[in-house]
Amino acid sequence: MKENKDNAETVPKVIVARNDFELAEGEARELTPGVVITISNTNVERQQVSGWIYLQNEYRVLWLKNHGLLQPVTLHKIDGKQQDLVFTHVRDNDAAGYVIQSES
């Protein structure tokens, strides 16, 4: 009988922390240590966000262009720990969401 490797690798994630945020267009904010986000544009009709995320420890920028709601952006994957950013609401000139840290 063959062992199903896919099932062995599918381990549920445990959410360790959740940080909610609300951010206005043009505002830069550190959501978690070393993660700074800026929203440059919101599109209410399409429920999309554009802007960038600066990962200070890695000296790199993740660009967001027309990023939709409930689509996670993985920020870090180190030693079984992962940080994901998710937008939940888009309004004129601001957006809201959360960052979760999980472990596998």
* Secondary-structure element pattern, one letter each: HEEEEEEEE
Could you tell me the number of beta strands? 8
Residue-averaged pLDDT, rounded? 88
Name the strands of the widest sheet in spatial order.
Answer: 1-8-7-6
Strand fraction equals over 45%
Structural class: mainly beta
Question: Which outline best applies?
Answer: globular
Describe how the helices and strands are arranged:
Elements: H1 5-9, E1 14-24, E2 28-32, E3 35-43, E4 48-55, E5 60-68, E6 73-78, E7 81-91, E8 94-103
Antiparallel strand pairs: 1-8, 2-3, 3-4, 4-5, 6-7, 7-8
What are its keywords?
single chain; 104 residues; mainly beta; 4-stranded antiparallel β-sheet; 1 helix; 8 strands
What does this protein look like?
The radius of gyration is 16 Å and the shape is globular. The mean pLDDT is 88. It is mainly beta. A hairpin with a 2-residue loop joins strand 7 and strand 8. It has one helix at 5-9; strands at 14-24, 28-32, 35-43, 48-55, 60-68, 73-78, 81-91, 94-103. The chain has one domain. The relative contact order is 0.26. It is built from one helix and eight strands, in the order H-E-E-E-E-E-E-E-E.
